[in-house]
Amino acid sequence: MRALVLLLLLAGCDRLDEPRMLQGLDEPFFHCNVQPVLTKSCASLLCHGDGNRYYKIFARNRLRYGLGEDQRNATLQEIERAYNYNASIAQVDLDKPLESLLLLKPLDQAAGGYYHGGAVEFEKGDVFLSRDEQDFQTLQAWVTGMTEDPKCIEPGSNL
């Protein structure tokens, strides 16, 4: 019985080298609109471009998966794109999207956000001071179900 339980637990473990898309939010909208916001606002090597963070983001010229320094500016690999999507959707409460960490963690506390330790620690300030900022609106559109034309051209891709 213990062996069966262990086998079932191991079968459910996520592995970075086997991308698996979670369901619930539009992937093309994420890659064409949300990922560029995260790359610009969150993926620096001091923030979520640090491989030791719980929530990390792979981006060109930033954190990369299995690539050397000479390939840091290469187009994102499928495994990196899948990881970014899965890591981001894991920060979304599908039942209460407007209460999602993806929205409230980078939002200034005065605007209803949560304490953002890294922003304070590095004296960078919160990413979004207001819910009215365009990039915040992009994240909010995605978590509330906005969809994209699947033919969109992902920024930074070689499409």
Describe the structure in brief:
This protein has about 160 residues and is mostly helical.
General description of the model:
The chain is 36% helix and 0% strand. It is mainly alpha-helical and 159 residues long. The N terminus is likely disordered.
Distance between the termini: 50 Å
H-E order: HHHHHH
Please report which band the strand proportion falls in: under 5%, 5-15%, 15-25%, 25-35%, 35-45% or over 45%.
under 5%
Number of contiguous helices: 6
Uncertain segments of ≥5 residues (pLDDT<50)?
Answer: 1-22
Helix percent reads 25-40%
Rounded to the nearest angstrom, the radius of gyration is 17 Å
Summed over residues and divided by their number, the pLDDT gives a mean of 82
Number of domains: 1
Q: Please summarize the sheet with the most strands.
A: none
Specify the structural class.
mainly alpha
Assign an overall shape.
Answer: globular
Number of strands: 0
Provide tags for this entry:
globular, 6 helices, about 160 residues, single chain, mainly alpha
List strands and helices in order, with pairings.
Layout: H1 2-11, H2 27-42, H3 78-89, H4 101-104, H5 117-121, H6 134-143
Helix pairs in contact: 2-6
